[in-house]
Every structure is written in structure tokens, then in C-alpha cells.
Design a protein that fits this description.
The protein is α/β, with parallel strands linked by helices and 332 residues long. The radius of gyration is 19 Å and the shape is globular. The protein has helices at residues 7-20, 31-46, 48-55, 126-132, 159-172, 177-196, 208-219, 259-263, 285-301, 321-330, and strands at 56-69, 72-82, 87-94, 102-106, 136-140, 201-206, 223-229, 271-277, 308-313. It contains ten helices and nine strands.
Length: 332
Amino acid sequence: MNSFEVSTFLNQLYEDCMKEAKAPLDHITDWGNYRSEQLQKIRAYLQLARLREHYEHTPAYLKLSSFRQEDVEISMYQIDAISALPFPVYVLQHTNVQKERAVMILQGHDPRGAKGAFEPFSQKSLGMELAKRGYRVFVPELIGLGDAKMHHEDGDIGPCESCGEIEPRLLNCGLNLLGVRVWEAIKTIDFAMRQTGIRRITAYGMSGGGHVCNYVGVLDDRIDQVIISGYVNLYKYSTHDRTHCICNYVPGQLSAGESYAVTSLMAPEKKLFLMSGLQDTTFPAKGSREAFAYVEQVYGALQAKERFSTLLFEGGHEIRIDPVCQFLEENA
């Protein structure tokens, strides 16, 4: 190592950001004002106002295809709600039993994209399992993932490579992948409510989808339940400790504090379930424990501890279906 190594400077930057950010537990007695101020800050670095002002599009929904698998109808819709950026949403629903709740699944860097929520049909999948249990399931294809990538004549590229192509172009224009994905998730909820009339929405996100879910769960009050797996942690143990996909890095993101500081803004109204694997090397268990404990303190301080639950399971960076189903059944 030479004397010009930059880690010390980067660590100092991180520590300075944490000192400048307002910690949720320091503002429990003034929670309403604190939360409002934090949400304003988050909307600013996600560039939601700019997206809405310049790229809001009168919504149109076009059903492109539909087929049935194991008594579950799977339909693909084209959502035209963002100027020049149509995106697909897959809708799964059982032919008979329907619950009065919809679940939005936000996929991470699954090579299959949104289809990973229900394919292959030879294996148990979260989307299919929820649909079989009577939930209407909505799975948007978020920008940069699955089929929503830049065109390549020589074939497909991986999801992180796709993010690496798109994010620099967005940054050059003052936008970022996270902000666009959050906006797509909000437009998916618009569609879900118009399509079904349902007013009870659960948002589930895994890994990179958990990153999106962490924000849309806070920003959209139509969501009353949030389940995040394999994401909520500390930046210093995850994205600032090792190289992650570029979509995890958002200009100004640390001004809101650690990722759990954003998560804490769901308190006290929303039911929140956080999960992670003890052998997860992407978002290590040490960070998950610290983050989960902090959010629990916030819910407790706001007299809402019964709305918060966690699970650290034996396993890695993976989806666990049964705990999600159990949470939904117990919190109908």
C-alpha cells in the first residue's frame, strides 16, 4: 500500500455524512415534522418532482398477453404512464379465490427480470404462491432489469451490466435509476388500484428490489404493509464496504442517513417485516442485526412495536417464500 491510497478519505466522507444526517431516534418527540422534512429531502435526491413535471404521461394500459398456469391467470400489460418509457407489469390472479389485498413484488437483479417472480413453473415461486393463496399480484419490470434494458444486437447482458450502461447516462442528465424505479413502482400502484379497485397494498422487495421498496414504502401512503428481504443494513457494511451494482449509489442518498433511517420513516402507521439471511455476503448479518434493532427502537418509541417484525434465517442472499406468506396471513 502506498501513501496515496484513498480509503481513509472515503471513510471520512461516510462518517461526515452520518454526522450531518438527522438520526430518527433523536426526533421522536417531533416525529411529524422530522418525517416531513426527511421525505422532502428524499423526493429531492430521487428527482421525483422533475420526473413528474417533465415526464408525467396520461396513463394508458394495454393488455398484451395472457395465459393460465395452475389455475392462475398471468397477464402482461403495457403501462404508458411515463413519457417515452412504457414498461410491462405482470398480473397474477387465481381464477376463483380473491383476497381484498394486492401484493406488488419488486424484483432485484434476477437475470429473469420480473418473470423470476413466477418462473420456472416447475419450482415454487413467490408470485405463484401468493396468487394461489388468493392475492392479486403485480410485478413491474423496472428500468434496467429483465426486458427493460438497452438494445444489444449480439444478445442479452446481465442486470448489473445493464445498470452500468443506463445509470451514467441518467446521472449525466441529473436523474438516477433508483428515482425512476421508485416512480415506476408508484405508477404500478396507480394501475393496480384502477385495475382492481383494491385499496390495501403490500409492497415486497428483495435485494435491489428491496432498495426500491425501502423508498416506495415510505413515500406512498397507499401501501399499508411493507416486506423487505436482503437489503436493509448499514451502508458501511455493504455498499461502502465492497463493490455493489452502481444502482445502489445515488447522489445525496446519505443525506437521509443510513438505509435504516429511511426504513424508520414507515413508523408508526405501516406494518413492516424485515428479513435477511445469516449467511448473506451481499448485505451481511452484522449490518442487518444493527439495522433491524434500530428500526425496532423507533417503532417502540412511537408506541407501535406490534407493527414491526424481523427474521434472520439460515441461508444466504435469497428469497424465502413461507415467511412472507405467513406474515400476510397473520396481518390480513
